[in-house]
Amino acid sequence: MTTLLDKLKPEARAKLNALPADQQERATYWLTKNEYIFETQYSHARWICMYFQHPIENFYDLFAV
Q1: Would you say 9 and 63 are in contact if contact means Cβ atoms under 8 Å apart?
Q2: Cβ atoms of residues 27 and 51 within 8 Å
Q3: Are 24 and 16 in contact (CB under 8 A)?
Q4: 8-11: long-range contacts (C-beta < 8 A, 24 or more apart)?
Q5: Dihedral, CA atoms, 3, 6, 9, 14, nearest 10 degrees?
Q6: 4, 43, 54, 58 - which has most CB atoms within 10 Å?
Q7: Are 20 and 26 in contact (CB under 8 A)?
Q8: 6, 51, 4, 46: which is closest to 25 by C-alpha?
């Protein structure tokens, strides 16, 4: 099963790798749980965008198609 973590664009992957360990661990966990996190776990998607300093309305721009 492909997860959002697998689909991260290189620039988003670099941001993930640059996060403090605790934030990286939480973001990684959420990115591996549900490919449709934006629709099903909006609060988790919001946290991911906060970590990546990325606007929530452009959530899927973090990922390759």
Answers
A1: yes
A2: yes
A3: yes
A4: 8/62, 8/63, 8/64, 9/62, 9/63, 9/64
A5: 120
A6: 4
A7: no
A8: 51
- C-alpha to C-alpha distance for 61 and 59, rounded to whole angstroms: 5
Alpha carbons 52 and 50: distance in angstroms, whole number: 5
Q: How do residues 13-64 score in pLDDT, each as one tens digit?
A: 999 999 999 999 988 988 887 677 767 777 888 888 888 899 988 888 998 8
pTM score of the predicted model? 0.76
